[in-house]
Every structure is written in C-alpha cells, then in structure tokens.
Design brief:
By secondary structure, the chain is an alpha/beta fold. 38% of the residues lie in helices and 23% in strands. It has one domain: Glutaredoxin. The strands form 2 sheets. The chain has a 5-stranded mixed sheet with strand order 3-2-1-6-7. A two-stranded antiparallel sheet has the order 4-5.
Length: 120
C-alpha cells in the first residue's frame, strides 16, 4: 500500500499516519506493507516518525519524481505537495485500486477492507 500525503506533522497527515500505525497488525496479517510518500525531507520524516511513534516506512520525495509519476502532485497554499492519494499495489507491481482525495479518518479501515477483498 503506497499512500501519498501533503506534509509531515500536520493535523490530517498525523491522523492518517496514526490510523495506519494503529492498524499495523492487521496490515501484517494481510502481508501488506504500509509506505508513505511526501515531498518532505528525510530529516522531517525521521522527526515525524520519532515524534508520532511510526514504525512503517516514509519515503522522501523533495524532487516530486515519485509523486508526479503517480499523478499525485498538487498545489496547496502556495506549495507543491503530494495529494492525499493511495494506491494498492500487488506483489507483481500492478496497481489494483486507487483512492484519490481521501478522508484521513476512515481511510485505513477502507484500505484494510479492500486488501481483504483483493486477497479472496
């Protein structure tokens, strides 16, 4: 599961990350990795993970290469950031489901349900 988010340590992004962390055991049971991507720096990600006790991977994409390839680049408050989009990618690298403009509160549960359905 590859999720894009606008910025470390902002309210919506923190809620979304906490929910993914809360549900980490369920992702593990489904053999699914949680990977987040934003335009923030590695140092910002380290600080975010440490402060919020996040154990999944966050990828730094300050040059927007990955963000742009996934069509998730947006302008927000005068900054170029990642849109809040999620991609479910199977072990062969095929995108199986796409969520755009997600609501961070229920999103982890939506993703878990879709992963369970895809694995049937």
């Amino acid at each position: 599961m590859l999720y894009f988010y606008p910025k470390d340590m902002t309210p919506g992004c923190t809620i979304e990350a906490h929910n993914f962390q809360r549900d980490q055991a369920q992702y593990d049971k489904l053999n699914a990795a949680v990977v987040g991507v934003s335009a923030d720096s590695v140092d910002s990600h380290v600080e975010f993970c440490t402060k919020e006790n996040l154990t999944f991977k966050l990828l730094a994409d300050p040059g927007h290469g990955i963000i742009e390839k996934y069509g998730s680049l947006q302008e927000m408050r005068g900054m170029t950031v990642a849109a809040r989009n999620t991609f479910l990618v199977d072990p062969k690298g095929m995108i199986r489901k796409v969520y755009t403009g997600v609501n961070p509160n229920p999103h982890s549960q939506e993703v878990l349900a879709a992963l369970a359905e895809l694995q049937k």
